[in-house]
Amino acid sequence: MAFSTGSPEGSRRVGTSLAEINIVPLVDVVLVLLLIFMLTAPMMYRGIDVNLPRAAAKPTAVEERMVLTVTKERALYLNDKRVPPGGLESMLRDAFRNRTDKTVYLKADAGLAYGTVIETMDMVRRAGIERLGMVTEPVRER
Q: 66-134 has which CATH code?
């Protein structure tokens, strides 16, 4: 918004307007909006809405996974419960007595000797477990 003084020497601008856009506040607003959308997007995920019919029968129970962990000190844990020495087979038989899915997932420390892991797998087989899965960690690529 410039104005001229009306001098005969020519038009001289007294006030000049700044025609640059300040980008910093725009970037701040965009980053805040990005953060808000990143935090709320997982909460907005929904499955398909279905009205399920009613039934008089009890729903089938979802069986939890049974994870057998062998630590570096050769301690055994079945789903985070400590297994007493020599009591693995009986504890597994009790845990799988009323289960239909007879699967155990074995998590063994990488520093354990091969024979120790095989002995543990043998005890699991003797307890009547039909399937044994090995839990590993994926390799990170550089």
A: 3.30.420.270
Q: How many residues are present in the chain? A: 142
Concatenating the DSSP letter of every residue in 29-86 gives: HHHHHHHHHHHHTGGG-------PPP-SSPPPPPPPPEEEEE-TT--EEETTEEEPTT
Residue ranges of the domains in the chain? 66-134
Q: What's the confidence (pLDDT) of residue 36?
A: 93
Tell me 124's DSSP state: H
Q: Which residue has the higher pLDDT, 139 or 102?
A: 102
pTM value? Answer: 0.54
Which amino acid is present at 65? Answer: R
